[in-house]
Structures are given as C-alpha cells and as structure tokens.
Amino acid sequence: MEKEQANLIIKVMVEWMKQPSLKYEVQKLPLINDELPSFHQWTKRKTVLAAFSVSIPEENGYHFLFIDWHRNDNFYLVIYTQNKSTTVAEIQRIAIINDVPHLTWTYNPLKRDGKNDVRKSYFKQTFGSLNVQVPVPLKSNDVELFMERLFKLSHNRMRADKAHEIFDI
User: Fold this and answer.
1) Closest residue by Cα to residue 12 from 154, 145, 152, 149
2) Among 38, 51, 75, 139, which one is most buried in terms of CB atoms within 10 A?
3) pLDDT digits over 28-49, tens only?
4) Segments making up each domain of the chain, as ranges
5) Using the 8-state DSSP alphabet, how is residue 35 labeled?
6) What 3-state class would DSSP assign to 103?
C-alpha cells in the first residue's frame, strides 16, 4: 500500500485508542528514527510508520506493524505473533470493493512437507475462501471491526498452518 494509505489507517487507529475499549488492550510501540529497534531481526533497518501491540485480555495478542517491508516504499501491514517469533500475515494490497477500500490477502502456505493442500482446504472451509478482504477503517468506530477481522484472519491462519496435526495427517 502507499505510505499515505498506511498513514490514514494509523491515524484512525490512534483516534480509536483514545476511546475506551472493553475488548482490546492497545499499546503503540515506540519508534526510534522511524525504526522499531530490538523487535525482530526481520524488521531491522526498515522504515516503520507505526507499530501497535493489540491483545484481548486473557487471550493472545498480535503486533501490527506498518512497515516498508521490502525497502521499496511499498508499505505493508505485517502481523506478528505476540511472542514475535514469526509473522502471521503480510498485507500490502488495497482493493476497492463496493466503493469501500479493503485490505486483501490470500492464504498461500509454502511449507515443504507436502501438506499445504490440507492447510488450504482447512482455511477455505473455516474462512469461506483463501482470499480475505478486510474493510479499511475510515473512522475510529470502524476499528473494532477491523481488529476483529484481523484477529480472525490471524487465528485462522495459525490454525490452518497446524491443520495436518488437527486431522492427524
């Protein structure tokens, strides 16, 4: 996504943080010179516009980074697990659907164990499609739904990655 698009989402999220939320705990992570030091080796020396730690009390959370992931002025919303061990999703595309901008992402596992078809099948069965569309929040009242959709995407991604264990294949 373009830098301006990412900044608009960030602006709306910051406004949302000012409102009390009964569901989410949110913390904006500090940046130093537009970088997120000591976060993860994959984020070193990459421009970060903003980073948020978002969790549901007594459940796992995620880190949401708006980052120039490939150092080419194309910004991504990268979702990291709470323990920062890996990414859950790297979302860069915005599509206009029914006059509303949506972040779009496709589940495409690339594990080298021959079980990616099982993972895809599970994800599609759970989410309805391998393609996920998340409406971009245009005002602070939209952010709660945005978070719900991103949490669902992340949760289903992590479960799908372990589908072969669930079905004992």
Assistant:
1) 145
2) 75
3) 999 999 999 889 999 999 999 9
4) 3-166
5) B
6) strand
